[in-house]
Protein: XPA binding protein 2
Amino acid sequence: MECKLGEVDRARAIYTYCAQICDPRITGTFWQTWKEFEIRHGNEDTIRELLRIKRSVQATYNTQVNFMASQMLRAHASGA
Structure:
């Protein structure tokens, strides 16, 4: 909708905000849609920023998964 109104920067800000809660392993459609948006409306720098944000979010989710796995192992080991 923002693109139809000519608000490309606002649409980009919405994508950036939503990216914080979209795990790339699960929400591949979101990331693909954002990439297509950047190809249509952005430039090399905006695509590079998209990839940087994606790597950052991926690292966050990987850290959370590893932390939860270690907590589960610790709880299982202390309960045995």
